[in-house]
Amino acid sequence: MIHDPxxxxxxxSPSVAEFTDRGSRFVALAFPVLSIDSFKQILNxxxxxxxxxxxxxxxxxxxxxxxxxxxxxAGEPSGTAGRPILGQIDSxxxxxxxxxxxxxxxxxxxxxxxxxxxxxxxxxxxxxLTPAIRKAVEVSYELQFDYTVVNDVIKTIKRFNCNITKxxxxxxxxxxxxxxxxxxxxxxxxxxxIKGCSLKKKSDxx
Length: 206
Description:
The structure is a single chain. By secondary structure, the chain is of the alpha+beta class. The chain has five helices and eleven strands. The protein is elongated. The strands form three sheets. A five-stranded antiparallel sheet has the order 2-3-6-4-5, with helices on both faces. Strands 9-10-8-11 form a four-stranded antiparallel sheet, with helices on one face. Helix content is 30%, strand content 36%. The two termini are 22 Å apart. It has two domains: 7-134, Impact, N-terminal domain (Ribosomal Protein S5, domain 2); 137-201, 2-Layer Sandwich (Alpha-Beta Plaits).
């Protein structure tokens, strides 16, 4: 499959699936996620929701290129949880998501092959329940403009399917927007033509 640098595959909505083996329950939760900070919040919420689980294992991959990733076995034998979970994310070519698998120990040791199969299966089931979607790679910009030209700015933003991630509306307005990479040059040209509109590229663009 040819990689298109203007798009990536992710998920849009969370999903939950459960796998059981010899009394142990493995609850897999998949979430779309765009930053490490938002992942940490999700992980804290999951731990509060499942306080009696024996393990909270996870993997995430973040960024349009998928360059930011992490796995953890959370006390399980090394390589038996986080890596199998990440393997399921990667087998589907996904990024900007996390999968957390919480385990409730059932009293019987599963061994390394059993654990790998359980975490892999739970993650796979959760990802099958939420459809993969194609998303545009976006480049982040900050716009500053006078309130009198707000309609022109919004019209241009909508025309090129930009996302407004932050906005401050006063006499002088500040927007943070994500411009689809494929539309970047055309959008910037029209925004630059709007009187008094200044643009600044943000360094954390993905």
